[in-house]
Amino acid sequence: MNKRNIKLLIVSLFFLFLSSSLYYATPIEEIKILVVCSDINDVMFANNLATITNSSVDILYLGIDLPDDRSKLSDPTYLIKYDEIWIPDLNVQWTEGGRLTREEVEALSNYVMNGGILVLGLNTYTQSWNRKLEEITGTRIIRIEKPETDSSEWDIIFNGRFYLYNDTYQTVIVSPYRARVLANYSNGLPAITLSHYGSGVGVLITFNPVEELIEHNPEIIDIYAHLAILALSERLGKPKIPIGELVLITLKKVFSHPFFLGALVFIILEIIAYLGFLPFGVTVLLAIPFLPFSKLLLKEECSKILEKVQTLRGVTLENLARELRKPPRRLKLPLVLLFLKKKIVILDLSPMDVRDSLVTPRGSESEGVAQWAIKRYPLLMREIIKNPRIRVIELAYRVDMPPYDVLRLLRELSRYGVVELKKAVVDYEVRPLDPLLRWSEV
Hints:
The protein is of the alpha+beta class and 442 residues long. Helices cover 49% and strands 19% of the residues. The N and C termini lie far apart (126 Å).
């Protein structure tokens, strides 16, 4: 064999060795595991699992002292990121929020169905018992054993090797109806089971995996490392959410988001405002977003309204609607837009016992109110114009109105510069001002 052939042989062997090393290393390196923890022992368990499997392990800590966001446990888009989810010892005594909720179990069930691997321990299975958990693991709970002393009866046999187990940590007796038994106790009962569920795998550890590892037998970590790799080979593919389901989940998230709900309420209010079903004060606030688009949306309506108001100088909403042949409520938004543009003023007439609004050009409020008052109270205004400085009591007598109602009306008119009230002995003198005098001449 010449030197060239020897070199080729060496290079070939090198790449063969490299490729074989990558082949065996890749499955372990690609494992991404989520461990749900409720105390410090669970955290130490997770760190041991990460070390022995050479995998990426994230911790979702739900301990009552400083819990993470528990809503992640029911979020399919969060769970699907992981190849395996381990919930080895979810003890309700130390867990914020207690046992697994119906929504969380449903999310975990869907995760396994879509190709995920779920590994449950004794306390998780028993304290969060749910029919879904039995379906996932393919087992039925029979009873819980609580030995007072440790013995060899509950030691674990896995792959032909014995592992010591402290009986006082308890065990749960199950009946596998669909699951395969991976490990037994010395007494022959199932210690670890594996069940196919959809495209994924459910693994049940019927003893306390955390306490045994941390407090009693560190060698038992070998079982957990083997389970992590074995479960991967049993699933039908990496976890993934079907596109239809993903769309529904995304829509549900969007629709339940506070920002979306706020935006939805705002849009509904905008529509109600556009249709004119809200009071003027509320419509003003909701009309602000329309302001930049008013030239495009309501240009023609705003122009017609402004022309009428400038011609009439002062007109009630009811009369304006009659002039334009539209329902009064449909004029509210255009009127508010004109108000925001400082073209008109909208006056509330309710203080003068009229359930309506008066629309006047900006700067002509006094003339608008005077014109309205002459039309609304012609006899009263005529007496004020003909008899300057007439007393309120005398005025009320002449127009056959209660003095108090006359005084209240005149006070409102005086606010707009239509009349002047001057205090007299036990009465008030009324004097007409220029806006009223001008309109009386018209």
